[in-house]
Write a structure and sequence with these properties.
185 residues; mainly alpha; 8 helices
Protein backbone atom coordinates (compact mmCIF):
# COMPACT_ATOMS: atom_id res chain seq x y z
CA UNK A 1 0.00 0.00 0.00
CA UNK A 2 2.86 2.37 0.82
CA UNK A 3 4.41 1.89 -2.64
CA UNK A 4 1.08 2.74 -4.24
CA UNK A 5 0.82 5.92 -2.16
CA UNK A 6 4.31 7.14 -3.05
CA UNK A 7 3.50 6.45 -6.72
CA UNK A 8 0.29 8.45 -6.38
CA UNK A 9 2.23 11.27 -4.73
CA UNK A 10 4.66 11.29 -7.67
CA UNK A 11 1.77 11.45 -10.14
CA UNK A 12 0.20 14.35 -8.24
CA UNK A 13 3.53 16.20 -8.20
CA UNK A 14 4.00 15.68 -11.96
CA UNK A 15 0.43 16.84 -12.62
CA UNK A 16 0.92 20.01 -10.55
CA UNK A 17 4.17 20.85 -12.34
CA UNK A 18 2.52 20.20 -15.74
CA UNK A 19 -0.40 22.47 -14.85
CA UNK A 20 2.00 25.21 -13.78
CA UNK A 21 4.01 24.70 -17.02
CA UNK A 22 0.93 25.07 -19.23
CA UNK A 23 -0.29 28.03 -17.21
CA UNK A 24 3.18 29.57 -17.51
CA UNK A 25 3.13 29.20 -21.29
CA UNK A 26 -0.18 31.02 -21.41
CA UNK A 27 1.01 33.74 -19.05
CA UNK A 28 4.43 34.25 -20.64
CA UNK A 29 7.99 34.71 -19.41
CA UNK A 30 7.64 38.32 -18.31
CA UNK A 31 4.64 37.69 -16.10
CA UNK A 32 6.22 34.48 -14.79
CA UNK A 33 9.40 36.35 -13.82
CA UNK A 34 7.31 38.93 -12.01
CA UNK A 35 5.40 36.11 -10.31
CA UNK A 36 8.61 34.39 -9.15
CA UNK A 37 10.08 37.65 -7.90
CA UNK A 38 6.73 38.43 -6.31
CA UNK A 39 6.67 35.07 -4.51
CA UNK A 40 10.16 35.61 -3.15
CA UNK A 41 9.48 39.19 -2.06
CA UNK A 42 6.07 38.22 -0.64
CA UNK A 43 7.57 35.32 1.31
CA UNK A 44 10.32 37.51 2.78
CA UNK A 45 7.91 40.33 3.64
CA UNK A 46 5.42 37.90 5.19
CA UNK A 47 8.22 36.39 7.26
CA UNK A 48 9.55 39.72 8.48
CA UNK A 49 6.34 41.73 8.90
CA UNK A 50 3.61 39.22 9.79
CA UNK A 51 4.38 39.39 13.50
CA UNK A 52 3.66 43.13 13.61
CA UNK A 53 0.30 42.73 11.91
CA UNK A 54 -0.39 39.66 14.07
CA UNK A 55 0.17 41.66 17.26
CA UNK A 56 -2.26 44.28 15.99
CA UNK A 57 -4.90 41.67 15.05
CA UNK A 58 -4.45 39.87 18.36
CA UNK A 59 -5.02 43.08 20.33
CA UNK A 60 -7.80 44.51 18.14
CA UNK A 61 -9.87 41.34 17.59
CA UNK A 62 -8.86 39.16 20.58
CA UNK A 63 -7.56 36.42 18.30
CA UNK A 64 -5.07 33.79 19.32
CA UNK A 65 -1.59 34.93 18.38
CA UNK A 66 -0.88 31.88 16.18
CA UNK A 67 -4.13 32.39 14.27
CA UNK A 68 -3.46 36.09 13.81
CA UNK A 69 0.09 35.25 12.69
CA UNK A 70 -1.23 32.91 9.98
CA UNK A 71 -3.83 35.46 8.86
CA UNK A 72 -1.18 38.20 8.78
CA UNK A 73 1.33 36.14 6.83
CA UNK A 74 -1.29 35.10 4.27
CA UNK A 75 -2.62 38.67 3.89
CA UNK A 76 0.85 40.13 3.37
CA UNK A 77 1.85 37.32 1.02
CA UNK A 78 -1.29 37.61 -1.13
CA UNK A 79 -1.21 41.43 -1.20
CA UNK A 80 2.36 41.59 -2.44
CA UNK A 81 1.74 38.78 -4.91
CA UNK A 82 -1.21 40.68 -6.41
CA UNK A 83 0.90 43.83 -6.75
CA UNK A 84 3.60 41.94 -8.66
CA UNK A 85 0.98 40.27 -10.87
CA UNK A 86 -0.38 43.67 -11.84
CA UNK A 87 3.11 44.88 -12.73
CA UNK A 88 3.72 41.67 -14.73
CA UNK A 89 0.49 42.11 -16.67
CA UNK A 90 1.48 45.63 -17.65
CA UNK A 91 4.92 44.46 -18.83
CA UNK A 92 3.34 41.55 -20.76
CA UNK A 93 1.24 43.98 -22.77
CA UNK A 94 4.47 45.65 -23.91
CA UNK A 95 5.97 42.27 -24.91
CA UNK A 96 2.91 41.45 -27.01
CA UNK A 97 3.52 44.63 -28.99
CA UNK A 98 7.11 43.58 -29.79
CA UNK A 99 8.31 40.46 -31.60
CA UNK A 100 9.22 38.62 -28.38
CA UNK A 101 5.95 36.74 -27.92
CA UNK A 102 7.34 33.26 -28.90
CA UNK A 103 10.26 33.50 -26.49
CA UNK A 104 7.90 34.89 -23.89
CA UNK A 105 5.64 31.83 -24.25
CA UNK A 106 8.38 29.15 -24.00
CA UNK A 107 10.18 30.94 -21.20
CA UNK A 108 6.90 31.35 -19.38
CA UNK A 109 6.38 27.59 -19.41
CA UNK A 110 9.80 26.98 -17.87
CA UNK A 111 9.23 29.59 -15.19
CA UNK A 112 5.75 28.21 -14.60
CA UNK A 113 7.21 24.77 -13.93
CA UNK A 114 9.66 26.35 -11.47
CA UNK A 115 6.74 28.02 -9.69
CA UNK A 116 5.08 24.62 -9.46
CA UNK A 117 8.21 23.19 -7.85
CA UNK A 118 8.24 26.08 -5.34
CA UNK A 119 4.57 25.49 -4.55
CA UNK A 120 5.11 21.76 -3.99
CA UNK A 121 8.17 22.48 -1.84
CA UNK A 122 6.08 24.84 0.29
CA UNK A 123 3.34 22.22 0.70
CA UNK A 124 5.95 19.63 1.72
CA UNK A 125 7.57 21.98 4.24
CA UNK A 126 4.14 22.63 5.76
CA UNK A 127 3.24 18.92 5.72
CA UNK A 128 6.40 17.97 7.59
CA UNK A 129 5.85 20.76 10.11
CA UNK A 130 2.36 19.55 11.01
CA UNK A 131 1.49 16.62 13.27
CA UNK A 132 0.33 14.39 10.41
CA UNK A 133 0.14 10.59 10.66
CA UNK A 134 3.51 8.84 10.42
CA UNK A 135 2.28 6.66 7.52
CA UNK A 136 1.53 9.76 5.47
CA UNK A 137 4.94 11.27 6.19
CA UNK A 138 6.57 7.93 5.37
CA UNK A 139 4.81 7.89 1.99
CA UNK A 140 6.09 11.39 1.28
CA UNK A 141 9.63 10.30 2.17
CA UNK A 142 9.33 7.31 -0.15
CA UNK A 143 8.36 9.55 -3.07
CA UNK A 144 11.52 10.26 -5.07
CA UNK A 145 10.04 13.49 -6.43
CA UNK A 146 8.95 14.72 -2.99
CA UNK A 147 12.40 14.12 -1.50
CA UNK A 148 14.01 15.91 -4.46
CA UNK A 149 11.63 18.89 -4.35
CA UNK A 150 11.31 19.34 -0.57
CA UNK A 151 14.63 21.22 -0.08
CA UNK A 152 14.06 23.69 -2.96
CA UNK A 153 12.17 26.35 -0.99
CA UNK A 154 14.39 26.22 2.13
CA UNK A 155 17.50 26.39 -0.08
CA UNK A 156 16.11 29.29 -2.13
CA UNK A 157 15.05 31.07 1.05
CA UNK A 158 18.57 30.75 2.48
CA UNK A 159 20.14 31.96 -0.80
CA UNK A 160 17.91 35.02 -1.01
CA UNK A 161 18.38 35.91 2.65
CA UNK A 162 22.15 36.05 2.18
CA UNK A 163 21.43 39.41 0.58
CA UNK A 164 19.01 40.57 3.29
CA UNK A 165 20.41 42.22 6.43
CA UNK A 166 19.75 40.04 9.47
CA UNK A 167 18.82 37.06 7.30
CA UNK A 168 18.06 33.78 9.04
CA UNK A 169 18.64 30.13 8.28
CA UNK A 170 15.40 28.45 7.18
CA UNK A 171 15.99 25.05 8.82
CA UNK A 172 17.24 26.44 12.13
CA UNK A 173 14.86 29.33 12.62
CA UNK A 174 11.72 28.62 10.62
CA UNK A 175 11.52 24.91 11.32
CA UNK A 176 12.95 25.38 14.85
CA UNK A 177 16.08 23.29 14.73
CA UNK A 178 15.07 21.24 11.74
CA UNK A 179 11.82 19.98 13.29
CA UNK A 180 9.57 19.12 10.41
CA UNK A 181 12.33 18.41 7.93
CA UNK A 182 12.72 15.10 6.17
CA UNK A 183 14.13 12.72 8.77
CA UNK A 184 17.64 11.69 7.90
CA UNK A 185 18.35 14.83 5.85
Amino acid sequence: MRFIMSGAINIIIIAVIAIYFISGMRRGLIRQIMDIVGIIVAFICAFYFARYLAEYLEAKYSLYYNLSLVISAVAIFVGILLLFRLIGTIFRKFADITLLSGLDTIGGGIFGAFKGVLFISLILVIAFSLPLPDDFKYNLQESKLATAIYPVLPWLFDQVLKFVPGGVDFEKNILKGGKGSFPGT
